[in-house]
């Protein structure tokens, strides 16, 4: 198959989605894409900015800062860790960020392990989907991600598996490259760059579970009072 990850190809698109389970190499793939460009690189709300600053990247602490940028790369890794995805405004926020990036000639990369980040309300904003290893049964019905996996499964999608150096591409603008690809990690890569997100993901999952338990208990208490 033709090589997808080239500067020539990626200059044809602006908004990239990377989806996959925790620890499947999403951040490494994003770094590989960033390496292909000769532009300023900004991370959005990085949990440990000192790590990226050592390699010349800058950290944005708020979404408002995007308005002052132009013709650069912005990487937003795990948006659900900095933006409450249970909030109804979240889909609109992500859609607005994508729209603004396109207006300002910014290449925007959004990576997440949570399907709630990529919904039917914002799917159309993404020019290129890069899918890492994921549990097919956990993906929402009718989603772009689910369709891409079905298209790239020889037999049953439930058996879909990818190695850390593999990904599936899906794009209308680069449709001749749709399918499975491999990549090599960039020279600057180290596990230090992925660990901040893994720790944050675990903390986020714990918080979500605690919130869910509290809601269940609250409903149970209300139900108990009604029965008295």
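^ Assign residues to that structure.
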């Amino acid at each position: 198959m033709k090589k997808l990850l080239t500067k020539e190809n990626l200059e044809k698109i602006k908004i990239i989605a990377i989806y996959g389970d925790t620890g499947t190499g999403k951040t490494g793939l994003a770094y590989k894409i960033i390496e292909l460009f000769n532009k300023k690189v900004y991370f959005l709300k990085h949990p440990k900015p000192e790590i990226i600053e050592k390699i010349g990247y800058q950290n944005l602490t708020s979404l408002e800062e995007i308005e002052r940028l132009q013709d650069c790369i912005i990487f937003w890794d795990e948006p659900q860790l900095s933006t409450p995805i249970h909030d109804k405004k979240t889909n609109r926020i992500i859609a607005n960020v994508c729209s603004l990036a396109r207006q300002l000639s910014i290449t925007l990369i959004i990576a997440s392990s949570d399907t709630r980040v990529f919904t039917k309300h914002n799917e159309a904003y993404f020019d290129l989907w890069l899918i890492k290893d994921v549990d097919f049964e956990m993906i929402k019905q009718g989603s772009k991600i689910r369709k891409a996996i079905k298209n790239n499964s020889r037999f049953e999608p439930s058996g879909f598996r990818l190695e850390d150096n593999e990904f599936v591409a899906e794009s209308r603008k680069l449709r001749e490259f749709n399918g499975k690809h491999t990549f090599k990690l960039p020279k600057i890569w180290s596990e230090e760059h992925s660990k901040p997100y893994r720790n944050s993901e675990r903390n986020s999952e714990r918080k979500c579970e605690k919130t869910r338990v509290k809601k269940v208990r609250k409903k149970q208490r209300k139900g108990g009072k009604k029965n008295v």
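The first helix runs from residue 7 to 10.
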